[in-house]
Write a structure and sequence with these properties.
This protein has 686 residues and is an alpha/beta fold. Among the domains are: 63 residues, no CATH class; 160 residues, no CATH class; 233 residues, Rossmann fold (3-Layer(aba) Sandwich), CATH 3.40.50.300. Helix content is 57%, strand content 12%. An 8-stranded mixed β-sheet has the order 7-14-13-8-12-9-11-10, with helices on both faces. A 4-stranded antiparallel β-sheet has the order 4-5-1-6, with helices on one face. A two-stranded antiparallel ribbon has the order 2-3. β4 and β5 form a beta hairpin. The two termini are 34 Å apart. 25% of the residues are buried. InterPro entries: Bact_polysacc_biosynth/exp, CobQ/CobB/MinD/ParA_Nub-bd_dom, P-loop_NTPase, Wzc-like_C. This is Lipopolysaccharide biosynthesis protein. GO terms for molecular function: protein tyrosine kinase activity.
Length: 686
C-alpha cells in the first residue's frame, strides 16, 4: 500500500490530467445520454431445415456423384444465409420500402438498424430491427423477411438457369468426346483382336501351362522308353544299333538261307576232314564252296545293312521263330521308336507354346495403348453420366443450394424501449479511470522507474544517513530549534571524513539536497563547529533565497559577500550571473576563488557547497574539480533509477570521491521516543 501511495505521489500530475479528462468525458456522456431518443426493438427467428433429397449417379471408375442436401459438417449454411440477408441488394430494397429510409443517406448507416445472429449448433437465425416507433420496428423486420425470401427465389431461378445452360453445353462436348473415344477403342480392338486383356491373357496362360504339362509328360515317357531300350540292350550285351542290325539280319530270309548253306558246308567239311586230308579233292571242293558261300553271305549282309557299320553284329539270330532274343531285340526297337515319337511330339508342343507366347507378348505390348483407350473411355463415360446427373439434380431439386426458409417466430415488439444506462456510463468511466491510471503508472514506471532499496544495494556505496520526513521542513525559520536526530547522525558520520570540504548534490531537482545541506550545517554548528555554506546553484540559488539573501550582481574584482546566518554558520550567497555565462564562471575558476581564501584561513571547520543537480547542469562536475568529496542525496519515492545511476557514473568519470549516500524522506515504522531533560518532556507532553 505504501508503494502505491508513493507512486501516486510521484506521478500525481499525469494521473490528475488523465482522470480529469476521463471525468469530463463521463460527465459529457451522461449529459448526452439524456438527449438520445428511445429506440424500439422487434425480434424474429428463421429456420433453415436440412435438405434430405438424395440423388445418386454412377460415374464408372470415377465413383458416384451424390447429392445429400446441406451438410453442416462441411459447410455452414447459416453463414451463406447471413451473407444474403446483409447483402446490399436486400437492404437497399428494404430501405426503399421503409418510410424513414430517405433519412439514411448511407446504406451502411441503415444496416446498423438490423442485427442478424446465427445461433450455434442449430439451424436458426435470430433477427432484430430497431426503429423510433414500435410498429415501424416490426414493419422493418417483416419487410426484411419478405425481401430476403424474394431474393432467395431469384437466386434459385438464376442458379437453375445457369446450371442447365452450362450443363447442356458440357453435355454436348462430353457426348462427342465419348463417341470419339469409343470409335478409337473399337478400331484398336478390331485391328489387334484384343477385347478383354484379362480374360484373353488368362486363357493363353492356361493353354501354355497345359501344353507345358503335356510336353513334360511326353518327355518323361520318351525318357522311360529310352531307359527301357537301354536295359534291353544291356541284357543283350549290345548297343541298340547292333540289336537293330542283328534283327534285320535275323529276319532276312536270303541271308538266313545262305547262312544255312554255309552251316551245311561247314558240317560236310568237318566230316570230310575226319575222313580225308585237306589235299583231298572233296575237302578242297568243300573249302571252295564254303569260301564262295561266305562271300555271298557277306554280300547279302551288306545288302541287308546298306549303311554299313563297323560295330559287331550278331549273325546267329534267325531261322527260329521262337527265339527269345529276337523278341527282346524287337521290344528294344519298339521302345526306341516310341521314344523318338514322343520326342517329336514334345517338339511340336514346344512349337505351339512358342506361338502362344508370341500371342501373349503381342497382348502385353498392346496392353498400354488398350488400357489408355479404355481409361479414356471410362472417363468420358463417367463425365457424361455426371453431367446427366447434374442436369437431373437441377431439375428435381431446386432447393439444394438455396433451401426453403421457414419463419419460426413472426416479428414481435419488445415492450421496453432501449435507453442508455447512466449507471453503466458512470461505471465504465470509473473502470476506465482505474485501468487507465494503472496503465499510465506502469508506462511511466517502465520508462523511468523509481529508485528502490535493491538499487541502493547494487550501488555499493555506504549510506551515511537516512533523513525521515521532517516535522519542521522550514529549517531556515527555526535555526535555534533542536536539530533533528537524523541530521545529528549524519553529522556524526561526517566527522569521520578526512577532508572538511564537502559538495552536496543530487541527480535531479526536488530530492532535498538544499534541505540536507542546511540541516547538516546546523547539526555541525550544534556540535560546536564553524561552518561555511557556499551556494553553488547559481541558476536557482535556492539556499540563498531560503536564507533570505537574493543574488546580487558582482564584478570581476569584487570580493565574495559573506553573510552571517547564526552563531558559527556563515553563507556565501550565489552571485547574480547571466545564465549564458554561468558555465564560464565555473570553468574560469572564479567560483573556486570566491571561497578558497575563507576556506584556507582556518576560520571554518567545514565548508559545505550546495551544488546544482548533476543531470540538470554541468556545473557540478566543474565544482568537483575543486572539491573532491561528494555527498549524494537521493529521495525515497522521488529519485529516478536511471537518473541516479547516470549521475553517479558522471561523478565516477570525473574521479569524484563519493563518500556515501544520504537517503531523504524515509518513512520509519515507529516514531521512536523523545530524548531530552525531564522539563522538555513535560512541556512536550503538556
Amino acid at each position: 500500500m505504501k508503494q502505491i501511495i508513493t507512486r501516486l505521489r510521484r506521478h500525481w500530475m499525469p494521473l490528475l490530467a488523465i482522470n480529469s479528462a476521463l471525468l469530463a468525458g463521463t460527465i459529457y456522456a451522461v449529459g448526452a445520454s439524456t438527449t438520445i431518443p428511445s429506440v424500439w426493438k422487434a425480434n424474429a427467428e428463421l429456420n433453415i431445415p436440412q435438405s434430405t433429397d438424395q440423388l445418386n449417379s454412377s460415374l464408372g471408375s470415377l465413383g458416384n456423384v451424390q447429392n445429400v442436401g446441406l451438410d453442416f459438417k462441411n459447410v455452414n449454411p447459416l453463414q451463406i444465409q447471413l451473407s444474403i440477408l446483409t447483402s446490399d441488394i436486400v437492404l437497399e430494397r428494404v430501405r426503399k420500402m421503409d418510410p424513414e429510409g430517405d433519412s439514411y443517406a448511407r446504406l451502411n448507416d441503415y444496416k446498423e438498424l438490423f442485427v442478424i445472429t446465427p445461433q450455434e449448433v442449430s439451424t436458426i437465425i435470430a433477427l432484430e430491427a430497431k426503429a423510433s416507433h414500435p410498429q415501424l420496428a416490426a414493419d422493418r423486420l417483416s419487410m426484411l423477411i419478405q425481401v430476403y425470401q424474394e431474393r432467395l427465389n431469384e437466386l434459385r431461378h438464376n442458379d437453375a438457369n445457369v446450371r442447365e445452360q452450362f450443363a447442356q453445353d458440357e453435355l454436348n462436348k462430353s457426348r462427342n468426346n465419348l463417341i470419339q473415344v469409343q470409335t478409337q477403342l473399337s478400331k484398336f480392338q478390331k485391328a489387334t483382336g484384343i477385347t478383354d486383356i484379362a480374360e484373353q491373357s488368362k486363357g493363353l496362360i492356361a493353354s501354355i501351362n497345359g501344353l507345358k504339362t503335356a510336353k513334360a509328360q511326353a518327355i518323361a515317357q520318351a525318357q522311360a522308353n529310352e531307359t527301357q531300350a537301354q536295359v534291353a540292350a544291356a541284357n543283350l550285351n549290345m548297343t541298340p544299333a547292333q540289336a537293330l542290325n542283328s534283327l534285320r539280319l535275323g529276319e532276312n530270309q536270303e541271308y538266313q538261307a545262305i547262312r544255312t548253306k554255309v552251316a551245311e558246308v561247314e558240317t560236310a567239311l568237318a566230316e570230310a576232314r575226319g575222313i580225308y586230308t585237306d589235299e583231298s579233292p572233296l575237302v578242297q571242293s568243300l573249302l571252295v564252296r564254303r569260301q564262295e558261300l561266305r562271300r555271298i553271305l557277306a554280300e547279302q549282309k551288306a545288302t541287308a545293312l546298306p549303311g554299313g557299320t563297323n560295330e559287331p553284329v550278331d549273325t546267329t539270330l534267325g531261322g527260329n521263330a521262337g527265339n527269345s532274343r529276337l523278341e527282346m531285340i524287337a521290344e528294344l526297337t519298339r521302345a526306341r521308336n516310341t521314344a523318338k515319337g514322343l520326342y517329336q511330339q514334345a517338339n511340336q508342343i514346344q512349337t505351339q507354346i512358342n506361338k502362344l507366347n508370341a500371342e501373349l507378348s503381342s497382348i502385353t505390348s498392346n496392353q498400354g495403348e488398350l488400357t489408355e483407350l479404355q481409361r479414356r473411355y471410362e472417363i468420358a463415360e463417367g463425365a457424361y453420366k455426371g453431367i446427366i446427373a447434374q442436369i437431373q439434380q437441377t431439375k428435381t431439386n431446386p432447393f439444394s443450394v438455396y433451401p426453403n426458409v421457414q419463419v419460426l417466430d413472426q416479428p414481435t415488439i419488445d415492450t421496453k424501449p432501449l435507453q442508455p444506462s447512466q449507471k453503466l456510463i458512470v461505471f465504465g468511466g470509473a473502470i476506465a479511470a482505474i485501468f487507465g491510471s494503472i496503465a499510465l503508472i506502469i508506462f511511466l514506471e517502465g520508462r523511468n522507474p523509481m529508485l528502490r532499496p535493491k538499487d541502493l544495494q547494487q550501488i555499493e556505496l555506504p549510506i551515511l544517513g537516512k533523513i525521515s520526513r521532517l516535522k519542521r521542513p522550514n529549517l531556515e525559520k527555526h535555526l535555534e530549534a533542536e536539530i533533528e536526530i537524523d541530521f545529528q547522525r549524519l553529522a556524526s558520520a561526517i566527522l569521520m571524513a578526512e577532508n572538511n570540504r564537502l559538495m552536496i548534490t543530487s541527480s535531479t531537482a526536488g530530492e532535498g539536497k538544499t534541505t540536507v545541506t542546511l540541516g547538516l550545517a546546523l547539526a555541525l554548528v550544534n556540535f560546536g563547529f564553524r561552518v561555511l555554506i557556499v551556494d553553488g546553484d547559481l541558476r536557482q540559488a535556492e539556499m540563498s533565497r531560503r536564507l533570505g539573501h537574493l543574488p546580487a550582481k558582482v564584478k570581476a574584482d569584487d570580493k565574495p559577500t559573506l553573510v552571517p546566518i547564526c552563531a558559527g554558520l556563515d553563507l556565501i550567497p550565489a552571485p547574480l550571473i547571466p545564465k549564458a555565462k554561468v558555465a564560464k564562471y565555473f570553468a574560469s575558476g572564479e567560483f573556486e576563488e570566491s571561497f578558497r581564501p575563507l576556506a584556507d584561513s582556518n576560520a571554518y571547520d567545514y565548508v559545505l557547497v550546495d551544488s546544482p543537480p548533476i543531470s540538470l547542469a554541468s556545473e557540478s562536475t566543474m565544482i568537483n574539480a575543486a572539491i573532491r568529496d561528494v555527498l549524494f542525496v537521493v529521495r525515497s519515492g522521488k529519485s529516478d533509477r536511471h537518473s541516479v545511476m547516470d549521475s553517479l557514473e558522471q561523478l565516477n568519470w570525473h574521479h569524484a570521491r563519493v563518500m556515501g549516500l544520504i537517503v531523504n524522506s524515509v518513512d520509519f515504522l515507529s516514531e521512536g521516543y523523545r530524548y531530552g531533560n525531564r522539563r522538555e518532556l513535560q512541556e512536550a507532553e503538556g
